[in-house]
Amino acid sequence: MRSLTAGLSLKECAVQLKLSYPTVLKYARQPAFLAKLKEYSLTIYGRVDKELQNSKESILTRLEEVSADALEKLASLMDDPTAPPVVQFKAAQDLCDRDPRISRTKRVEGNVDHKFINPALLILASQTAQEVKRFKESEALGDGNTIDVTQPSGD
Question: What is the value of pTM for the model shown?
Fold first, then answer.
């Protein structure tokens, strides 16, 4: 807070505090810090807010630029006949991972539905299981008793 009121930018504050710039940005984005800064000085708050917005935009812009360069490098590595086959394979694999239709790292999406079983269905299933069990037991004993499966047993 003192460094900001002295007119330093967040980058300069990071150097002075011997912290990394992303760490200072993280602290500066905290709502409590911003509220305290706004309460202390609207001018400084406006300057810091603008710097935070610019840092976010510059990071996204830089990421897009580097991503485009990386894509070109991967494509050239994949087609380079002098590159070892394992490097060509990894380059091809990384290029495939960028395509959401065939990505190996794509999250599995699905619906989780809860199905409720009717208690009457459970009773009928239990009766059927008991009838099958009795039938197999009578078959194993060879006593010739058969069960009429058309009539519920009442168990």
Answer: 0.34
